[in-house]
Amino acid sequence: MGRLILFNKPYGVVSSFTSRDGHNALKSYIDVPRVRAAGRLDKDSEGLLVLTDDGKLQNRITSPKHKMTKIYLAQVEGLVTDEALQQLREGVELKDGLTRPAKARRADEPEWLWPRDPPIRERKSIPTCWIELRLKEGRNRQVRRMTAAVGFPTLRLIRYSVGSWTIDGISPGESLEIR
C-alpha cells in the first residue's frame, strides 16, 4: 500500500494543491510528494480529506460502485422536521437526479467542535440544529443541495469520516499519516 494521509481541512481551503483564484490550497498544509485527494470537499466545508499516492485506493474511496460510507455533520438553518429527515432517508430529487437514500438523524452539536473563522451567519429569529448524514455517494456539494431541497439550508458542514477513517484527534489544518 502507498501513502495514506488523513487531513482535517479547515474552512476556506480548496481540496487541490494549487488554486487559480488565490484561495488557500493544500500545499500550505501538506508537503508530501505525489499524494492527491481521494474525493473533494468544497472550500466552504471542513473536515476529513483523505490523501493517497495509491491509485487503486483512491478509486476504492471515490468510486460510487464501492459505496464507501461518508459521515457528515451539518448545522442547518431551522429546526429540522421528521418529514425532512424522512425525505433525506428516501432520497432527494436534485437537478442531477435522485440521490441514493441517506441515513439521516438529528445530532447534538459535537463536543469536539472547533470555532470556525469566520463564524457562521446566525440570525436571532431563526434557530439552528445539527444533523448527521451517512452517504454512499459523493456528488458536487451534495449535502448542501440535499438539505436545501428539504427546506433546511446548511450553514456549516463537516465531514467526520470516510469509511473507517475519522478526524478524531486531528485538529483543523493538521494531518496524520497512516502506516
Structure summary:
The chain has 179 residues and is α+β, with helices and mostly antiparallel strands. It is built from 3 helices and 11 strands. The protein has 2 domains: 72 residues, Alpha-Beta Plaits (2-Layer Sandwich), CATH 3.30.70; 94 residues, 2-Layer Sandwich (Alpha-Beta Plaits), CATH 3.30.70.1560.
- Largest beta-sheet details: 9 strands, mixed
Number of domains: 2
Shape from CA axes? globular
**How would you classify the quaternary structure?**
single chain
Rg, rounded, reads 16 Å
Give a written overview of the molecule.
By secondary structure, this protein is of the alpha+beta class. It has two domains: 4-63 and 167-178, Pseudouridine synthase I, catalytic domain, N-terminal subdomain (Alpha-Beta Plaits); 69-162, Alpha-L RNA-binding motif (Alpha-Beta Plaits). Helices cover 14% and strands 31% of the residues. The chain has helices at 55-62, 82-90, 142-149; strands at residues 4-9, 36-37, 46-52, 70-77, 93-94, 97-98, 103-107, 128-135, 154-162, 165-166, 175-178. Strands 1, 2, 3, 4, 7, 8, 9, 10 and 11 form a nine-stranded mixed β-sheet that branches. A hairpin with a 2-residue loop joins strand 9 (154-162) and strand 10. The longest helix is centred in the middle third of the chain and has 9 residues, at 82-90. The protein is globular, with a radius of gyration of 16 Å. The mean pLDDT is 92.
